Amino acid sequence: MTSPVSPDIVRQLAPSGTLRVGINLSNFLLVTGKTGSGDPVGVAPDMGAEIARRLNVPVKYITYKTPGELADMAGTDTWDIGLIGAEPQRAEKIAFSPAYCEIEATYIVPAGSPLKTLADVDKPGVRIAVTARAAYGLWLERNIKQATLVGTDTLDSATDRFINDKLEALAGLKPKLLTDITRVPGGTILDGHFMTVQQAIGTARANAEGAAYLKAFADDAKASGLVANLIAKHKVIGLSVAR
Length: 243
What we know:
By secondary structure, the chain is an alpha/beta fold. It has two domains: 7-101 and 199-241, 3-Layer(aba) Sandwich (D-Maltodextrin-Binding Protein, domain 2), CATH 3.40.190.10; 103-195, Periplasmic binding protein-like II (D-Maltodextrin-Binding Protein, domain 2, 3-Layer(aba) Sandwich), CATH 3.40.190.10. Helices cover 35% and strands 26% of the residues. It has helices at residues 7-13, 43-55, 67-72, 88-91, 118-121, 135-143, 155-164, 174-180, 208-223, 226-233; strands spanning 19-24, 33-34, 40-41, 59-64, 81-85, 94-96, 101-109, 127-131, 148-152, 169-173, 188-189, 195-204, 240-241.
């Protein structure tokens, strides 16, 4: 995908002449730092920069504290492409590429918990701490039938709520849970995953040609080794190239 891009695609994806890339700062695997000028650094910013390079336009990062805030701005002419977990609720307003990388989500349970498997968690009386509007939180909203979700605003506040209120489970991305488990003496990370967050590239649904281009870009980025190279470049543990 190094050949010139049609002017129609450039006009759809960068109507201002600059590609405005929406970035979710709370995803610690995809955004691992920032430059001296404050721009985000990591796999997601590099993916956005590569798309801008291929479109032959400058890049500008539009940052958000949470994925929900980024998704809320879809179609408002605030960002042109957004790098975010692809979820059905978000797809109502955003046309997503195939996933370019994925992250496993599972649970921590406290010491002595009777919950031994993922299936054990969705039972009456089980309270699950979760970051509201995260991709895995949206999945749990659709799929949990008997347990109760206890939503918080941030990753760390979900962990605090789990610990302080002695909840039965903490949902999260496995790499973050590997850190959080140090705060839960005797706690266990349940084997397997209840879902994988599919990180994708989105644009407004009206941008049909632009969306088709992003689909082709995501496929190429995986097949060419670009995504794998970016994961290695930023030394990210727990992030996999999507299948």
